[in-house]
Specification:
Length: 432
């Protein structure tokens, strides 16, 4: 992929991109939704989510050490399944999961920003602000890798440091000790399926580590540093998530967290820091969401460009200037803007979790079935990861069938359209 520059992204830059995606999506967008499904055990759910994500990351680390590429997951799928429908469909599921993540973060940006103006969460300003964020990140992305790395690294330092101050300050003011980390009383009314559903969203909170693989061809010493960046990002994000989860639980009751689920951190800052805490938290949310979308757009444009180059997905220039990767930037931003306008946070997150878990199962199985001996991967760990993913996915779908059947219908229709569209496209290409 000649438009990419080797050695243009350092290890710290790769870590900044990975943490950028994860921290922007999870803490500000998903914490309240996880609490809604798991009650007082929501901090524990994030711990379990980190463990499952760590198991999942094993395959990506082994693959990135063997095959670093700007196509990332698309390249791994092609190594496992060849240039066919399975590779194309699974890669597109990952692409859609990433685009969905952009929309999730964009709406979160709108929700938190409106807290400064006491705006309604149904206000049209929320999707409008989300759209503005997507446009700004598009402009930054076309400025080049060096600009992206500098902005991502600066924002990563600001938001991780700021969130740490929020979390530690909140715990201090609330008189919290880690001896109280496990709640004395477990909230009632939650089924096993509900806890597993919360776990699906927690896993989505860590899914951003996969975006690091899409920068493989540009990272310094990619055979080593892609895997290192994945592991470092997961460790940093796990620590940040837990600090914030404990801080929120120390300052807000579970019903209050659920009531303010789309902006729970801003609400948790009020008892700890007063009105200044609100401004501080909203400022953090703005920085975190900007860096999250920036890193996400950066990664997905590379993966989809590779899919186009190897002729697994169609592409039209529509008279646009620039290279293929810049065109893919335009397409992903347009899709993300559409989702931001028409979907709420809960449905966006649920759709992303379903697509991500299906894609991860396909990746793990491909590595186990076709590549584990070549890359010297532990087959038992791969099978355990598949079993965990499948259990969580099944429970999440069952829970959504009972509570939001429309979402399941939308997910099923999209899956069917992706599969049929790919089969038709590949059939045409073969005949040509």
């Amino acid at each position: 992929m000649k438009q990419y520059k080797k050695n243009s992204i350092t290890l710290k830059g790769a870590v900044a991109l990975g943490t950028g995606v994860m921290i922007g999506a999870a803490i500000f967008a998903l914490l309240g939704q996880v609490a809604e499904l798991s009650g007082s055990l929501f901090p524990i759910v994030f711990i379990v989510g980190a463990l499952i994500s760590g198991c999942s990351a094993y395959a990506y680390v082994k693959m990135s050490n063997a095959y670093p590429s700007a196509g990332g997951i698309a390249m791994y799928l092609m190594k496992a399944y060849g240039k066919g429908a399975i590779t194309a469909v699974a890669a597109l599921l990952m692409a859609f999961a990433m685009v969905i993540n952009q929309s999730l973060v964009a709406r979160t940006f709108g929700s938190y920003t409106m807290q400064l103006f006491e705006g309604s969460q149904n206000d049209f300003w929320i999707p409008l602000l989300g759209v503005l964020l997507l446009v700004v990140t598009f402009l930054i992305n076309i400025a080049g890798n060096k600009v992206i790395e500098k902005i991502s690294f600066t924002m990563a330092i600001l938001k991780i440091g700021g969130i740490a101050i929020f979390a530690i300050g909140g715990l201090w003011v609330a008189g919290f000790s880690f001896g109280k980390a496990i709640p004395e009383e477990i909230s009632g009314g939650f089924s096993i399926a509900s806890y597993l559903g919360a776990l699906a969203l927690a896993i989505l909170a860590y899914a951003g580590f996969t975006t690091i693989t899409n920068s493989g061809a540009e990272i310094v010493k990619p055979h080593k540093n892609v895997g290192r960046a994945i592991l470092i990002s997961l460790v940093i994000c796990t620590i940040v998530y837990l600090l914030v989860a404990f801080a929120v639980s120390a300052n807000l009751s579970v019903p209050k967290i659920i009531e303010a689920k789309d902006f729970s951190l801003a609400e948790a800052a009020k008892p700890a820091f007063g009105k200044y805490g609100l401004w501080f938290t909203v400022g953090l949310a703005i920085v975190a969401t900007v860096s999250s979308v920036l890193a996400n757009v950066f990664a997905i444009s590379r993966m989809t460009a590779m899919l186009t180059e190897i002729k697994l997905i169609p592409h039209k220039h529509f008279g646009m200037p620039g290279n293929l990767q810049q065109h893919m930037l335009v397409y992903t931003i347009v899709i993300a803007i559409t989702l931001t306008i028409f979907f709420d946070l809960s449905r966006i997150a649920s759709l992303g979790a379903i697509f991500y878990l299906i894609m991860d199962i396909i990746v793990q199985w491909g590595v186990y079935k076709h590549l584990r001996k070549k890359i010297k991967a532990n087959g038992s760990l791969l099978l355990i990861t598949i079993a965990l993913d499948a259990t969580v996915l099944t429970a999440f779908i069952w829970m959504k069938i009972q509570s939001d059947m429309l979402l399941i219908i939308i997910a099923a229709v999209l899956l069917l359209l992706i599969f049929i569209g790919e089969k038709w496209f590949l059939y045409r290409k073969e005949n040509e």
